[in-house]
């Protein structure tokens, strides 16, 4: 079958490989669409980072490996116990879990001591087919098509981030989102599903500001506009209550800390390429709380699927700004997102076009 495999930094090759081997409890998924994630871009530019020098303890996988973890497709020959039927449209939860460590037993599966990811530690969705543990498949709701379902995985990431804040009553919260890219827009859509109404976005790219405007109270350019002043005006001087950092750059952190009011929460959702430097005096003087969120738990993924089924993630289709064939994944996918990232939110890849 055809697959796009990561060999090394800036070395992804579309090539013929063997069909995926089936282990106990695994089934074949015929991949429909797979989204290019920011973490895949980091691997392409800076990697290998997620791939260990030794085989993964749960899969034995080593490089090269078919990338892609945001994927959906149709399941082949599932067991009767799964509740699935042959050909059912499914979304893949790409996490690979031991289910035995203390963190898994606590329900904190997003922090499994042997955590792996399909698409890094087992063949992923940039391929015609993938072998996936049957228990990690979720049947798509009738109102969600395979054309758009691949964005469920990044939506689960932001649902986890929202829940990790520990906050409720989002309708009354003054929120600033730093970065209006894929995770920023997904977060906006999810926050709206949780009832948030007062959202401001700080994003330098004009096209991305235009893409988020219909969902938020305001979107400002931090390069040319006084975001801190605008936020103070918006909150009548109280300051922002929650900042979600989806950019992971020093300038964004600085704006976030300056806009926060006393006792505010800074939630980092971004993957930083360089160390995060905290302005300690501002942090202490404002009694700022700092949290971070990464990946998602079983419950987060199930809740995201339910939000999709209930039609509460309004506008999620707008996360998709491009579709390409597998053979074009490097030039029209990775390089396009690196060189023209301001023009895109999410590009989906398929072997069927």
Automatic annotation (TrEMBL):
Cofactor dependence: Zn(2+)
- Superkingdom in the source lineage: Eukaryota
Q: Name one GO biological process term.
A: butanediol biosynthetic process
MF annotations from Gene Ontology: (R,R)-butanediol dehydrogenase activity; metal ion binding
Q: Which residues form the Enoyl reductase (ER) domain?
A: 7-321
> For this UniProt entry, what's an example GO CC term?
cytoplasm
Which UniProt keywords are listed? Metal-binding, Oxidoreductase, Zinc
Q: Does the keyword Mitochondrion apply?
A: no
The family database entries (PANTHER family) matched by this protein are listed as: (R,R)-BUTANEDIOL DEHYDROGENASE-RELATED (PTHR43161:SF23), SORBITOL DEHYDROGENASE (PTHR43161)
Q: In which family does this protein belong, per the annotation?
A: Belongs to the zinc-containing alcohol dehydrogenase family.
Protein's recorded name: Enoyl reductase (ER) domain-containing protein
> What is the organism field in this record?
Knufia fluminis
């Amino acid at each position: 079958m055809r697959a796009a495999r990561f060999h090394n930094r800036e070395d992804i090759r579309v090539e013929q490989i063997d069909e995926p081997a089936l282990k106990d409890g695994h089934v074949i998924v015929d991949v429909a669409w797979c989204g290019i994630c920011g973490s895949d871009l980091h691997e392409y530019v800076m990697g290998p980072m997620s791939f260990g020098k030794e085989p993964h303890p749960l899969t034995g996988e080593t490089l090269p490996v078919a990338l892609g973890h945001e994927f959906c497709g149709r399941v082949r020959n599932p067991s009767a116990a799964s509740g699935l039927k042959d050909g059912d449209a499914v979304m893949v939860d790409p996490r690979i879990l031991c289910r035995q460590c203390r963190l898994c037993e606590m329900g904190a599966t997003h922090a499994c001591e042997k955590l792996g990811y399909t698409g890094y530690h087992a063949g992923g969705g940039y391929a015609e087919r993938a072998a996936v543990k049957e228990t990690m498949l979720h049947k798509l709701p009738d109102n969600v098509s395979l054309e758009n379902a691949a964005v469920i995985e990044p939506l689960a990431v932001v649902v986890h981030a929202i829940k990790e804040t520990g906050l409720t009553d989002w309708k009354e919260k003054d929120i600033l989102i730093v970065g209006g890219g894929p995770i920023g827009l997904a977060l906006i859509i999810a926050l709206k599903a949780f009832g948030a109404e007062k959202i401001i976005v700080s994003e330098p790219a004009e096209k991305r500001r235009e893409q988020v405007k219909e969902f938020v109270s305001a979107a400002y350019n931090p390069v040319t506009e006084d975001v801190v002043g605008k936020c103070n005006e918006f909150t009548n001087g109280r300051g922002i209550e929650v900042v979600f950092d989806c950019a992971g750059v020093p300038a964004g952190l600085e704006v976030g800390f300056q806009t926060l009011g006393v006792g505010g929460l800074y939630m980092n959702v971004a993957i930083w390429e360089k160390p995060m430097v905290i302005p300690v005096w501002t942090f202490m003087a404002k009694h700022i709380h700092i949290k971070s969120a990464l990946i998602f738990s079983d419950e987060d993924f199930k809740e995201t699927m339910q939000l999709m089924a209930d039609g509460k993630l309004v506008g999620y289709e707008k996360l998709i700004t491009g579709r390409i064939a597998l053979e074009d994944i490097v030039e029209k996918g990775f390089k396009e997102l690196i060189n023209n990232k301001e023009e895109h939110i999410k590009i989906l890849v398929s072997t069927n076009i």
